[in-house]
Amino acid sequence: xxxxxxxEDLLQDFLIEAGDLLxxxxxxxxxxxxxxxxxxxxxxxxxGFHTIKGGAGxxxxxxxxxxxxxxxxxxxxxxxxxxxxxxxxxxxxLEATGTVRDMFASLEQGMQPGAADASLIVRLRQAIxxxxxxxxxxxxxxxxxxxxxxxxxxxxxxxxxxWELLHGIVTGVARVIPPVREAPSMAAVVPxxxxxxxxEEVIRxxxxxxxxxxxxxQVSTGRREGEKQRDNSIRVDTTRLDQVLNLSGEIGLxxxxxxxxxSDILSGRNDTETLHSLDxxxxxxxxxxxxxxxxxxxxxxxxxxxxxxxxPRIARDxxxxxxxxxxxxxAGEETEIDKTMIEDLADxxxxxxxxxxxxxxxxxxxxxxxxxxxxxxxxxxxxxxxxHIVILVADDGRGMNAERLRAKAVxxxxxxxxxxxxxxxxxxxxxxxxxxxxMAAQVSDVSGRGVGMDVVRTNIQKLNGNIxxxxxxxxxxxxxxxxxxxxxxxPVLLVRLxxxxxxxxxSMVREILPIEAKEVQEVGGRATxxxxxxxxxxxxxxxxLGWPLERAPCYGVLMQTxxxxxxxxxxxxxxxxxxxxxxxxxxxxxGVAGVTTLSNGQIVLILDMKELLGSAGDQRWxxxxxxxxxxxxxx
Length: 635
What we know:
The protein is 44% helix and 18% strand.
């Protein structure tokens, strides 16, 4: 039974707006730490907590109201100059925002949030009173001791009421005054030192490694289960909706024109003028439908900055826990991408930022010894290039050592010595994506399990994207993620095996080339071709599908995945198409990502090349002798 029966719509509106406000507050807190005297920032954060408190009041979320009220009072004192921003106060504020987000999680489940941790409330009250020193929780002077009954009135001039005590009772802001016979120090209530939070707790409120993540596992994309209902909503600019409405009206008028022309033709009017009008109407309808399709796609597009805004806080907390000075710089926040992709990008980006902060950048002493600035810069950037979105996660750290990566992979048994010797620098960098690979000497709450980078590549590939690594030893590392603008339409290359067409993702295709017998060589029992100095194996599509090889392939499609490059052997090809993907939820054969329909009505399977390569095993390879025999047989 929900605690908000009859208030579901109000609750969802509050969670959406308050979630955006809190994300904005997190970013402003990171800025405030760098500019503690910025009054405008203090005012904006104060207003954020005030607005959240007001919305929580409508929902009768008393514990959330109490926590926001205390934090709001702290910022009121900060902006009025009564107390100054210190690292200890920032730690308390950031812990409070984390608790507020935890309370949002309870609200998403339809439950009233529980009370905040008592030690947090005590430290907030200390901070409001200006008594929080050194993060120890000890006051600058012994706490006030309550006088015995009647003493309070004797302590007030003329027996006047204690207005400060009365105000504290009404607002719940005043610090707790212990009885005189107990007189415990605040250090007994709050731990002597505020321990650094585990990195898992730091990222838990956003996204990150979960207990179900295992090396090589097919992880689910998306966010916490409790967020799914909230994330189904989308904010659309009314001008875009107006454009959709106008195009719908134009299509309606064109439909009426086509109906009139149809009636004329059925009645026997087949003159040149009628046919010309029909041609114009069909052309206009084609143009309008294309414009409507683009307009509808734009309604799904959202600024990626809504995803980026949560990361400065996470990077700050992780760096602080690791004793590093790291600043996360954002760029291209206005770049728009499909909303469903924004949600599914949360896991990969948090892993890349965590990897950059933990492995990529050095600590301050090492950076100074190498002649670098003490502060490390991690850059998160998005931009549009043609029909793709490119996301960069770059650091100015120590870079990646290809030789050490190969040695570590051999040590862990992930590759053989022979495979290691044949790898170039790009392939060596891609070893970090192997399940179970980690350069960490020991497992920590941040890294070392060999899960994170495997999760990154898995989720990026689910979005029909790819990820590349650029690294220079001693200079830094850049991860480049390339994604399609939308998942609704997939550019594909139509290939044929006999009379049967298949579609392969165009993002994996590099070029198409003829397969001639004189150019086919045999290396290690496998048919290969040399393309611009690179020896590439030939994998017949028939072998990947488990079909008998009836003839030697005539053409090859040079394809590239994160693990390998190869030539896909086909009979012929039919060109490029923008496929509207239809999923096969109830029945999906292995190696099939979905289906699409061609202009002639023919249904075509869209192949999942990664799954085909993994399931075919050694049967996918073709020897040169077999290929030559098939060519002779079909000659």
